[in-house]
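Note to self: keep these together.
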Amino acid sequence: MGEYILSKALKGHYAVGAFNFATLEVLKAIMSSAEDCHSPVILQISEQAMSFMGDEYLKGVISATRKQATVPVSFHLDHGKSLDSVKRAIEIGCDSVMIDASMLPFEDNVSITSKVVEYAHERGVYVEAELGSLAGIEDDINVSEENSVYTSPKQAKEFVDRTGVDSLAIAIGTKHGAYKYSSESRLNMDILKEIERALPNIPLVLHGASGVEAAQVNKLFELGVDIRGAKGLSRDLLEEVSSSNICKINGDTDIRIAYLIGILSDIQENKSNIDYRKYLSSGMREVAGLVADRMNLYKSAGRA
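Structure:
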């Protein structure tokens, strides 16, 4: 196993953006920004995205991306729910995987995660797991507010010691999906600091970290997509955590919003056009702009 992309981030005090994709166009947009920003990047696929794109197509896409990339690239399974999903992702070509058994009792989470770590490490693949549960709805994730739980720093150390995971996703106040906060965004920084003290050498991961900025929400509404009331994590908090032991910051909702804004804006402005490549290219430009902004915010730009 080569050096883990997140180990470098931990040493360098920056975070690597982990961006979800489910189409070739979105992947290419993310990669164009990574190259322009000279930034390492993590390209994430969910179980639904694997099914949507198809395993054999994904194998080809991953292979082509690695051949062309001049920056560090990691393909990652996001929220794998079983050992079978992990095996499938590794077969496709992922070099890191997430096993998410966070909704199960602690001992069950330890047991499942340990089996995944053993299987993945034998194949040179890194493992991320989650302790604590984030509220929200996104792809295969559906956790109610009452079932969301902050990560326990004491349990975090025990969990890592017993499972041997390479990185740990923690719950400190973020949520999956577009509707994260009803008022000001906030994170429990005290818990983050306690976990950092307990696990100083383990890269931490922040899920549910899309910004969902008001300007984008309003723009979507003008274009006919109503997600009014959606609100994400503030730029100040994203910048703050990227200097902590949070070494991987996930973003899916922002990618979806940017892609839609680009495509729908182009359709509104060019109603006689039937060349879908032009619409998709506009979506790609929006995604690329978002990703470049995040890479600078997370301080990963120039770290390739």
